[in-house]
Amino acid sequence: MGTLLRFILGRIASAGVTLLGVSVVVFTAIRMIPGKFEEVLVPRGNPEFRAAMAEKLGLDQPLPVQYLKWIGDLLQGDFGLSLLTVKPVAEEFANRVPVTAEISLLAALVALVVGVPLGLMVGLGKQIRGVTTAGRLFSGFSISVPDFVVASMLLYFLTSYSLWLTAGTWVSFGDDPIGHIKIVVAPVVTLSLFGIGVIAATSRHSAISVLRQEHVTAAILRGASPGQVIRRHVIRNASIPVVTIAAIYLGYLLGGTILVELIYSVPGVGRYMLNGVLYRDYVVVQASVMLAATFFIVLNMLSDIAYAWLDPRIRTGDQQ
């Protein structure tokens, strides 16, 4: 068995164990929140009615029994029924996951397209003082400003001035392509700013680190042109840390768009999970967190595999 295949199988096993641990933590944590679902839904109901509702929903069973039933259903692709709406959670995911995935993937794409060239330009263009300073300032600004601040500022300008972009009722691309683009731009810009800063900073540090390596110095001494050095040595080696950061960032986007979806009224998974938390809808919260955790863990696993493919030393644990 090749080293890469063993590495992949090991990462898959590790991801499975991690997901199992996440399921235990999520199941336990959601039940430690003060206030039971039946008390939140029917605050003035008598104890007998609440007990009957808990029995009907299976909330009166021992926690180990509830957990095993939940895990068994998840393995069969059954996310359960929302305790609040009594609708299949899978149906809600089918409608909401594409929305969250769209703005997340677009934000990640923008972050890569802008962040990587910006980082390389700053890292490789040290002699251009103005470019280096401007790039580092922009990178620091985009990292330090929280998403909700950017979203609030953009929303203020969109609602106060007659701009081409809009914010409000969500429309699908199939129903109104132009209207959809107008609504998507603001959340994508908001989510991509942080990624641009992180990816630019990572690309810059990676490029500088690669330029200091002996094989690059040797290539320069042999008379290789700057373009050849960048294409043959810098880009491939500097891209390895960027792959990892990009995967982590995309996982963060898929599971961390709650505030942006709330501010821009985006009907994604984040808003759905927030409503579940507010109404103690255990089924919705558990399923949403597990979905986000699965995205995050799988993307990290894929980034590790890509990392190992780009750098064979990772497969054998040789970091020297």
In short:
With 320 residues, this protein is mostly helical. It contains 14 helices and no strands.
Q: Mind summarizing the main beta sheet?
A: none
Shape: globular
What fold name stands as the CATH topology?
A: MetI-like fold
The residue-averaged pLDDT reads: 81
- When the domains are counted, the total is 1
Beta fraction: under 5%
CATH superfamily: MetI-like
Secondary-structure arrangement, i.e. CATH architecture: Orthogonal Bundle
Structural class, judged by helices and strands?
A: mainly alpha
In whole angstroms, how far apart are the ends? 24 Å
Instruction: Give Rg in angstroms.
Output: 24 Å
Helix content percent band: over 70%
Order of helices and strands: HHHHHHHHHHHHHH
Q: Which stretches are poorly predicted, pLDDT < 50 over at least 5 residues? A: none
Number of β-strand runs: 0
Q: How many helical stretches?
A: 14
CATH class: Mainly Alpha
Overview of this protein structure:
It is a single chain. The protein has 320 residues and is mainly α. It has one domain (3-33, 79-316): Orthogonal Bundle (MetI-like fold), CATH 1.10.3720. 77% of the residues lie in helices and 0% in strands. The protein is built from 14 helices and no strands. The protein has helices at residues 3-30, 37-41, 47-57, 63-75, 89-124, 129-144, 147-160, 177-211, 214-221, 226-255, 258-263, 269-278, 282-310, 313-316. Helix 5 (89-124) packs antiparallel against helix 6 (129-144) and helix 7 packs antiparallel against helix 8. The chain starts with a helix and ends with a helix.
